[in-house]
Design goal:
Blueprint lengths: L5 H11 L3 H11 L10 H12 L2 H6 L6 E7 L7 E4 L5 E7 L5 H13 L11 H15 L1 H14 L9
Parallel strand pairs: 1-3
Antiparallel strand pairs: 2-3
Length: 164
């Protein structure tokens, strides 16, 4: 059996998650420095807890878990990640050491907010992109939200355009 090449894996990922790089590029353009940086992991954990147990989260993402664990990944990890249980009762975000900034944390929280159901437009598709916009508007401010939304529009990222 031959092992898939890096190019083959990237091609498959692009086919199943076509907006991933467009989202990453829009985030980097909208807030190039990554926003606020957390000096201690405990501060990052408290930030996530304050968000996910607050009124805004419950109101805007009523189907998202309120219980969200925050775990550290080593600096040698290549990415941060998020997961939601199939019944949406619990979520977890793994934040890579060296990526303790609000853009990364809010990105992973948007995955939790988008829920466990498969999205036909990919893991970074319409449902996620809409949740990320909602999170940026509330957590990073209107100017950052506007810049992200403009980045989506320039890159053809699908999102829900009407206000919920």
């Amino acid at each position: 059996m031959t092992r898939p090449t890096a190019a083959g894996r990237a091609q498959r990922a692009a086919a199943t998650d076509p907006y991933r790089h467009a989202i990453y590029d829009a985030e980097a353009e909208a807030l190039p420095g990554g926003g606020r940086r957390f000096s201690r992991f405990a501060h990052l954990e408290a930030y996530v807890t304050d968000i996910t147990t607050g009124h805004w989260w419950a109101t805007n993402f009523p189907d998202a878990p309120l219980e969200v664990d925050v775990l550290r990944r080593s600096r040698s990890a290549t990415f941060s990640a998020a997961h939601v249980s199939t019944d949406a009762s619990a979520g977890v975000v793994w934040i890579r050491d060296g990526s303790w900034d609000t853009v990364t944390v809010v990105h992973e929280l948007a995955h939790v907010a988008a829920g466990p159901a498969p999205d036909p437009t990919g893991a970074h598709g319409r449902r996620f992109a809409t949740a990320l916009l909602d999170c940026w508007r509330e957590l990073l401010g209107f100017p950052a939200y506007g810049a992200l939304r403009s980045g989506y529009d320039r890159r053809g990222v699908p999102y829900q355009r009407d206000r919920r």
